[in-house]
Structure formats: structure tokens, C-alpha cells
Amino acid sequence: MRELQDLQLLIDNAVTQLKYPPYPAELYEPIYYILSMGGKRMRPALLLMACDLFGGDVEKALPPALAIEVFHNFTLMHDDIMDNAPLRRGKTTVHERWNQNAAILSGDVMLIEGYKLMMQVEDRLLRIILDIFNDTAVGVCEGQQLDMDFETRNDVKIDEYIYMIRLKTAVVLGGALKIGSILGGADMKDAELIADFGENLGLAFQLQDDILDIYGSPEKFGKQVGGDIISNKKTYLLIKSLELADEAQTAELNKWINAKEFDSQLKVEAVTGIYNTVQVKQCAENAMHEYAEKAFEALEKINLPEENKQYLRDFADSLMVREH
Amino acid sequence: MRELQDLQLLIDNAVTQLKYPPYPAELYEPIYYILSMGGKRMRPALLLMACDLFGGDVEKALPPALAIEVFHNFTLMHDDIMDNAPLRRGKTTVHERWNQNAAILSGDVMLIEGYKLMMQVEDRLLRIILDIFNDTAVGVCEGQQLDMDFETRNDVKIDEYIYMIRLKTAVVLGGALKIGSILGGADMKDAELIADFGENLGLAFQLQDDILDIYGSPEKFGKQVGGDIISNKKTYLLIKSLELADEAQTAELNKWINAKEFDSQLKVEAVTGIYNTVQVKQCAENAMHEYAEKAFEALEKINLPEENKQYLRDFADSLMVREH
């Protein structure tokens, strides 16, 4: 089996070889720009990993892997407009560096270019692969819409939240693994199972991210502690705390959520205090373990040699053991 | 052969039967909304027409025809954001009625839904059809980008303008005819020829539109005379006039183009005066006839019974005989 880092390097290299027309410049330059920002290339690497695990030719799976990466960056380009984000990975976002129209239209053409790359598969797999890609793409759009809807709602329930992060984040991981496995020769049963593995692992990973916002060490994760609290992000912790809180705690939470001006540190301390009192960290960890467990259950059912399953287990562990 | 109006009615009916999930509402309601605005459904009707002319089953070609219509409306939804347009066909645009984010994301999902519809073809045609659809879609994005680029330029040349309207407008007409012909059983040679016919007819039609802005009768076309002049739209007439104008005429044209405040009627009269002096109408008509001629030349080479070619000739004539 190829190391995940090797696969990521393979993607990095292939990304730099993507070529688009020179003209119109404002349409194509933002594509190079956003792709050059890098990132972990986790989604395309997962696609290659699944292909490799099922005995497929990783090189032949590169175009669909790039399709997933181009698609993912299309969603980032449009999400940044919608979130009014000035920066991504420390760099100016496309709509800020060029303009909003360039970001809309470049994103549109990236989605089409994603399809073109995804179509570089054998004829007999074309429809199967594109069906998965379509479902994945629609799921991500639905997830983004729900995420925006939740921003203006204070009555989001835990199951709605899980539904949203499944669509917005987890479905692409499952889809990438599913496509990769089929390219590697997996049958539909195993393809569904590895998708199930990826989706549940994605959910567990997102919940871990929610937990680490408060309970992670900032030195280790390079993020400001409580960033989600400061921006009132509807995380598992906040939604569940609002469920668990008594009347006084609810009032206190709402006071901080509705405060237009506040001291960030005080807000983080106060909200974390409530989180601690209602013991929401334990709830979130339970949920995280539940989804990780579902991921492992799906994994066990996959028809692969033990060695390959161990590779997937190690990969899952590597994602989930971040100390907090 | 089926009448064009019948085909348009078939599309109208099929559009009302498109079903999307009820949730998230802000993602899917704008799709119903923009599709309900109607319009002539010319693009999907052309697809069905070509399928019919080559002896195909029009009913089976309905999903790809709908794909073209959904795709076209995706471009309208995003174009309206980019053009900051408050109205379309007299109705509030999606970004105004909902918000900009809903218009971005609904448009994105429409593009994906377009692919899903376009994929409803026989396996053996899937790649061929999708390749044409990809090329068409990329062309439209490039055309829209160029159109926006031209807004801020005063040195656009005629060949650049033709290149832009070919991509923005004509390529979809050619693409729709090409896809329809293949679904109807045409070989690639005839498919290319009918695409060529459609593309050149589209160019001729766009040039006619440019001419009618000034020289059409407002009662007949329901448009304000000189709307393009008032908004400084880079039409064939304006670009060619800037080429033909002497120093004084150029200064006069630029004065009106750069004027921040002006009396609309005076501007239209003054610019039309220059158009008349440099005899740009004749140039535009020559160009229009040239492209119409190219369309007819392609048509003659298509391997179809005389009766079917006559249908296409009549169709082309019906588009081009609008009195002006």
C-alpha cells in the first residue's frame, strides 16, 4: 500500500500540471490561484487510497482525484463569497483579490472542469462514477445552504446539526472513497461500505473539531481557543448546551450570543464555564465515539485482506488521536 | 415533423413536472421560481427539433432538452447577480427576492441538476453528449467573462465582439442542435454541420438584435429604441462606428459614452446620427447576412431529406425576417 503522504505528493504534483486557457484571464487565473493555496489534499488522497487498497492503478485514478480537488475548491471559492471571508489559509480570497463576479464565474467553470476530469474513467464506469459525483455535489450544496440557514436560527436541534455536517463535510469524504474503490475494482457492496466508513469517520472528525475549538491546546492546533464561541458558530457544543441548560444558563448563553459588543476572552470563559457545568464535552465525545465506532463497524464488513483493513484502521486512528 | 410551437409546449409541460426536494427551501424554491418565468424555451425546443428531424423519439430526448433549459436558467441566475439586475422578464430576480447567497447556491445546484438530466441518455451516447455539454457550458462561462471585460474597455475590436457573442449566445444554440441531432441518430459529420448551422444562425440573430435596438420599430418589438445606446452596451453598431468614425465623430461618441448625466433621448438621437453618417447599419447587415449565409451553407451539406432541410430553412427565415 502507498503511504498517504506519497499520495498527497502525487496530487500536489498533478495539481501543478493542470492547464487552462490563458484567456479570459479573470476566468482562469483564480483557478490556479485557489489551487495553489495547497491544503492537505485529503479528499483526492482518500480517493487514491481507496483505489490502491482495492488493487487499482493509482496513476489512472489521478484525473478523478483531481476532479474531487477541483470540485472542493469550487465550493471553497463560492463559500468564501457567501461567508464574506477576506482570507483563506492566510491568503486573500478570490472575490477580494479579483472581484465577486470573477469568483462566481471562476467557481462555475471549476465545477464544469470538475466534471471533465471526473469523466476521465473507463466507459463502463462512467455512469456509475458520475452518479456518485452528482449525489456528492448536490449534498455539499444542501449542506452549505443548511449551514447558512442555521446562522440565523437559535433553535437548531442536534439531529439537524448532524444532518448538516454529514452533507457539508462527510459526504465528500465518503464519495471520494467510494469512487476510488470502484476505480480500484471494488464491487458496489464494498464501495457502499467504504463510503459508510468515510462518512461516519467524517462526522467523528467534525465533532472532534468542535471539541478541540475549546478543549484543544492552541499551541498544538494553531487556532485561537474559542473561535467558534466568539463567532456564535452553531457547533455540537453550543446546540447541545442549549438543550441541557437550565433557565439561568440558557439566559446567560443567549446574553452572550446576542451581545453586539463584548470582550472576547470574557465571552469564551463564560460560555466555556457553562459548557463545563452542563458537561457537554462528555456528550460530544460520546457522539464522536459513536460515529467512529460506526465507521469501524463498516470497515470490518469490507471484503479486503486484513492488512488493507489495518491500513484503514491506522488511517482512522491517525485522524482521531489528536490530543485534546 | 413536429411544429416548433408543439415542441415548446412539450417543454413547458415537462418543466412544470421537474421535482426537487422540499428542503432546504432556499436552495430549491429559486429553481422553480426562475423556471416558472417561462420564456420561449428556444434552446430545448431546438434540441427536440434536431432530434425529430433526424428521426429520433422526441419524448426520449426530453430530459436532455430540460438539461439545456435548466443549464440556461442557471446562467441567467448567476448573470443577474453579476449584472446587478433587479428584474428579469418583469419579475424580481432571485438574488433580489431571496438574497445573493441563495442565488449563488441555487445556481450551483442547477448546474449539477443540468448534468443529472443530461445523463438521461443511452449508455453508448453518454460520453459523446456530455463532452458536447461540457464544451457548451465552458463556452458560455468564457463568453460571460468576456462580456464583463468589455464593459470596462473602449478598445474592443469587431473580431473580439464576434468571438464573445459566439461563446455567450451562439454556442448553446449549436450545442442544443448537436445534442438533439445525435439523439435522433445523426452521425458526427451531420451533428457538426447542424451545430455549425445553429452557431452561425445565432450570430446572425444577435447582430439582428443589435440592429433592431436602433432601427427596429418599438411597437413591434416592445423594447425601448436605443436601450443599448443609453447603457453604453458594446454592440456591433458601437464598436464598428468607433472604427469608422473620424476624429470629430470619435470625440462626439466618447463624449456621450463618458457622460455621467445626460438626456436619454438626446443621447440616442446624437449617437444614432453618427451611426447613420458612418453608415454602420449597412455594415452590420452585411455581417448579419454573412453569418446567415454561412448557416445556410452548413445546412445544405447536411445529409437530410429535402423536406427536413426546408423545415430548417423556414425556421431560420422565421428568425431573420423580423421587419426593421
What does the secondary structure layout of this molecule look like, with pairings?
The structure is a homodimer of 324-residue chains.
Chain A: H1 4-16, H2 25-36, H3 42-53, H4 62-82, E1 87-88, E2 91-92, H5 94-97, H6 100-118, H7 123-151, H8 158-184, H9 188-215, H10 218-221, H11 227-230, H12 236-244, H13 247-258, H14 264-277, H15 280-301, H16 306-320
Antiparallel strand pairs in A: 1-2
Helix pairs in contact in A: 1-3, 2-6, 3-4, 3-8, 4-6, 4-7, 7-8, 8-9, 9-15, 12-15, 13-14, 15-16
Keywords (chains A, B): Isoprene biosynthesis, Magnesium, Metal-binding, Transferase
Pfam family, one (chains A, B): polyprenyl_synt
InterPro entries (chains A, B): Isoprenoid_synthase_dom_sf (IPR008949), Polyprenyl_synt (IPR000092), Polyprenyl_synt_CS (IPR033749)
Nearest-angstrom radius of gyration of chain A? Answer: 20 Å
Please trace the helix and strand order of chain A, writing H or E for each element: HHHHEEHHHHHHHHHHHH
Multimerization status: homodimer
Low-confidence stretches of chain A: none
Mean pLDDT of chain A: 95
Tally of strands of chain A: 2
Keywords (chains A, B): Isoprene biosynthesis, Magnesium, Metal-binding, Transferase
Pfam families (chains A, B): polyprenyl_synt (PF00348)
Family (chains A, B): Belongs to the FPP/GGPP synthase family.
InterPro entries (chains A, B): Isoprenoid_synthase_dom_sf, Polyprenyl_synt, Polyprenyl_synt_CS
Structural write-up:
The structure is a homodimer of 324-residue chains. By secondary structure, chain A is an all-alpha fold. Chain A has a domain at 187-324: Farnesyl Diphosphate Synthase (Orthogonal Bundle), CATH 1.10.600. Helices cover 76% and strands 1% of the residues of chain A. The first copy, chain A, is built from 16 helices and two strands. Chain A has helices at 4-16, 25-36, 42-53, 62-82, 94-97, 100-118, 123-151, 158-184, 188-215, 218-221, 227-230, 236-244, 247-258, 264-277, 280-301, 306-320; strands at 87-88, 91-92. In chain A, strands 1-2 form a two-stranded antiparallel sheet. In chain A, a hairpin with a 2-residue loop joins β1 (87-88) and β2 (91-92). In chain A, α1 (4-16) packs across α3 and α4 packs antiparallel against α6 (100-118). The first copy, chain A, starts with a helix and ends with a helix. The mean pLDDT of chain A is 95. Chains A and B meet through α4, α6 and α7 of A and α4, α6 and α7 of B.
